[in-house]
Amino acid sequence: MMFRASKLLLLVVVCILKDVEGSCPTMLKTNVQVERRLLGKGFHRDLETTVYVSSPEDLSGCKILLKDILPSGAYADTNQLKFLKALGGPSFHIPQTVNVETPEHLSSKTFVYLFAKPQPTLQDHLLVNLTIPVHFRYHRARNGNIYPLTVSITVPHPSVLLMCEEFVEGCLPLLLLEPCPPDGRDSCEWLPLHSFSTTEAVAGQIPVGNTNLLDTVLLATTTVTGGAVLLILTAVRKKKPIQLTVQGAHCCISPDLYDL
Ligand SMILES: *[C@@H]1O[C@H](CO)[C@@H](O)[C@H](O)[C@H]1NC(C)=O
Q1: 36-49: b or e for each residue (b if 16 or more CB lie within 10 Å)?
Q2: Can you give the chain as a three-state secondary structure string?
Q3: Measuring from atom 3 of ligand 1, which residue has the nearest CA?
Q4: Four-point Cα dihedral 255, 256, 257, 260, nearest 10
Q5: In this structure, how many other beta carbons lie within 10 angstroms of the beta carbon of residue 7?
Q6: Over the stretch 209-223, which tens digit does the pLDDT of each residue have?
Q7: pLDDT digits (tens, 9 = 90+) for 51-110
Q8: Measured between alpha carbons, how far is 150 from 168 in angstroms, rounded to an integer?
Q9: How far apart are CA 200 and CA 219, in angstroms?
């Protein structure tokens, strides 16, 4: 009985939502295509996002928000984005303090909001094309006999939201509070848009340390360090201090001093 009631409730909620969406032509008729590329190799990459927006409405005065949630294995560096913004890079907001040192298992997801003004194109749609640097985090070393020694970090496609001077009344119940451009200091009302993509979420492969090699690495490091110390000590012992007589006083000066 309970089960049926909750199912019915769900159905009603879904119907209401569909109905609300139906009265927001901006959401219903705007076509959004998101494409992504992860450029480069290794731990430091460029994440390129291209968004094509086509709509029967004139959205050229509107702004676009790309909301990204980077997994704990990746981050965007606030200071680097600030620097790039000063050089003409995208406006952004990262609501958290990003620790760029911590490994993956001690990190959380990073929220990255990118603000853009869509540009008209010859193909009769609006275009947003942004590239930001993203970085991958070191992963905890694992046993190479059991686990693969590369990990794949998947960066999901962003959500796309729209902010215009005015929305028709039917859209108002659908608006979400998200950060305002250009730096996310306040909250603004954004209309979430449905989007599709012809590409899968992008993923980067990075190497992981092998715990199997840990003993070998420790032994090698200790041997090399120990050997170097011995070598230095032997060299120092071989060089006999020379005797100098300065105004009758005996003084020892290591020959090493002359090299300075
Ligand atoms: C987006 O910008 C990159 C350079 O940053 C360029 O290579 C690419 O062709 C652009 N994409 C579109 C669809 O304009």
Answers
A1: bebeeeeeebebeb
A2: CHHHHHHHHHHHHHHHHHHHHHCCHHHHHCEEEEEEEEECCCCEEEEEEEEEEECCCCCCCCEEEEEEEECCCEECCHHHHHHHHHCCCCEEECCCCCCCCCCHHHCCCEEEEEEECCEECCCCCEEEEEEEEEEECCCCCECCCCCCCEEEEEECCCEEEEECCCCCHHHHHHCEEEECCCCCCCEEEEEEECEECCCCCEEEEEECCEHHHHHHHHHHHHHHHHHHHHHHHHHHHHCCCEEEEECCEEEEECHHHHHC
A3: 129
A4: 130
A5: 10
A6: 988 876 766 777 778
A7: 999 999 999 899 999 999 999 999 999 999 999 999 999 999 999 999 999 999 999 999
A8: 50
A9: 44
Pairwise CA distance, residues 180 & 63, whole Å: 10
Please give all residues whose beta carbon lies within 6 A of any atom in ligand 1, as ranges: 50, 129, 131
How many residues are there in the chain? Answer: 260
95 with 81: CB under 8 angstroms? no
Q: What are phi and psi of 105, to 5 degrees?
A: -75, -10
Kindly give the number of the ligand 1 atom that is closest to the alpha carbon of 129: 1
Q: Are 81 and 132 in contact (CB under 8 A)?
A: yes
Distance (Å, rounded) from C-alpha 8 to C-alpha 12? Answer: 6
Give the type of residue at 204: G
Start-to-end Cα distance in the chain? 91
- Of 36, 38, 48, the residue with max ligand 1 atoms within 8 A of its CB, to mutate for a pocket test, comes to 48
Q: How far is the CA of 126 from the centre of ligand 1 (A)?
A: 14
CA 168-172-175 angle, 5° bins: 125
Among protein residues, the one with the nearest Cα to ligand 1's atom 6 is 129
| Nearest alpha carbon, ligand 1 atom 13 | 50
